[in-house]
Amino acid sequence: MEKKFIKQQTHLPGPVSKELLERRNKYVPKGISNNCHSFVKKATGALVEDVDGNSYIDFAGAIGTLNVGHTHPRVVRALQEQTSQFIHTCFNVMMYESYINLAERLCKLAPGNFDKQAAFFNSGAEAVENAVKIARKYTKRQGIVSFTRGFHGRTLMTMTMTSKVKPYKFGFGPFASEVYKAPYPYVYRRPVGMTEQQYSAMIIDQFEQFLLAEVAPETIAAVVMEPVQGEGGFIVPDIAFVQRVREICSQHGILFIADEIQTGFARTGKYFAIEHFDVVPDLITISKSMGAGVPISGVIGRVEIMDAVEPGEIGGTYSGSPLGCRAALSVLDIIESENLNDRARILGDRVIEKMQILAGRFECIGDVRGLGAMCAMEIVKDGQSKTPDKETVGKIVKAAGERGLMLLSAGLYGNVIRILMPLTITDDQLEEGLQILEEAFDAVLMNDHVVSAGR
Known about the structure:
Layout: H1 15-27, E1 40-44, E2 47-50, E3 55-58, H2 61-64, H3 73-85, H4 97-109, E4 116-121, H5 124-139, E5 143-147, H6 156-161, E6 179-182, H7 196-213, E7 220-225, H8 239-252, E8 255-259, E9 283-286, E10 297-302, H9 303-306, H10 322-337, H11 340-361, E11 365-371, E12 374-379, H12 390-402, E13 405-406, E14 408-410, E15 416-419, H13 427-448
Parallel strand pairs: 3-13, 5-6, 5-7, 7-8, 8-9
Antiparallel strand pairs: 1-2, 2-3, 4-10, 9-10, 11-12, 12-15, 14-15
InterPro entries: 4NH2But_aminotransferase_bac, Aminotrans_3, Aminotrans_3_PPA_site, Class-III_PLP-dep_AT, PyrdxlP-dep_Trfase, PyrdxlP-dep_Trfase_major, PyrdxlP-dep_Trfase_small
Enzyme class: transferase
EC number: 2.6.1.19, 2.6.1.22
């Protein structure tokens, strides 16, 4: 296939990137990881160009931050207009209309036929942290329940809620108290011989037993759930599990918090992924693609819950900045005008189709899964043992990068390839990216793995 969008002028990384990389290694700590060793010069839509003139197709989307693509013209115009008027006053000092406009639009979009309010912050972790504060204030309880393989951030509280030890928690304790981990469905890794229906019933039973063995429900302020686990490996729970957790929360006065940091803003084919499960949360946390690359996050929830906190108890100097609010309003305009919810479903269908073709060729692709345009493949050493193969995933991601495709891994075992391309990607760009993905598999796997003769 002739490449129309990916242009390679130099070996990667190029000479200018190598020089910058040396300076990066000297002045920036190694604790900040870098997936790609090139440096960006400009980016538009789903295309990125580095400082050496090499171009890439972006299947990473800044870890799900760019559903509307890089430098969308409507976002750029809104930011230019805002910076020409004022950059920041701090909403706590002098308010601005864009904050109110954004809160109103999000409250109307969020599921639930009840009055809502929204508060804005800077990052996904801040949103989750503040949702926890609000839940504890409202319920007058301390316990917080998150789930195995969940990811909620890197602050003390959200790091505690996060399930993966390395690299997120190792050596950073002691952790916050009164945080508990509950079981979360993982259909691909269900016990041998068990049907999906039997497995679903078992996980629901385990959750109910958890409330007897680990923490009493009357002490729990909130259950925090990713409708689709992001960093955990793009794991989609079954509807029965999500609905049963919601029922249990309602029975015991526990708030149900949907963490939509990575799943929100059309990624799964709806504004909020929780809508797929016919469940209405009490609070929703949002960030990432909310601002098209401009830092902003938020919590949306029932009025009586949001109003439980007193003035000054939540917020911050840059929380809900004018730039973030204007960017987020533009994102909502783009999602609506360009039908990105529909586009996400179309993209997801095509990506899953391609992944299934690859799974028919390569035995090491143990599972293909996703919701909307949130798609992933799990790589294993063989289909019987399902032993995670992190090393091969690393090789595939590297091979894709060398060919101009920006790609990410995920999962508790680091053995999942996830795709988070901008929803504004063109069909031609998508097909070229998928072709590069297949080339990367061929380069790594043709000699290293058994090729299935038709599975």
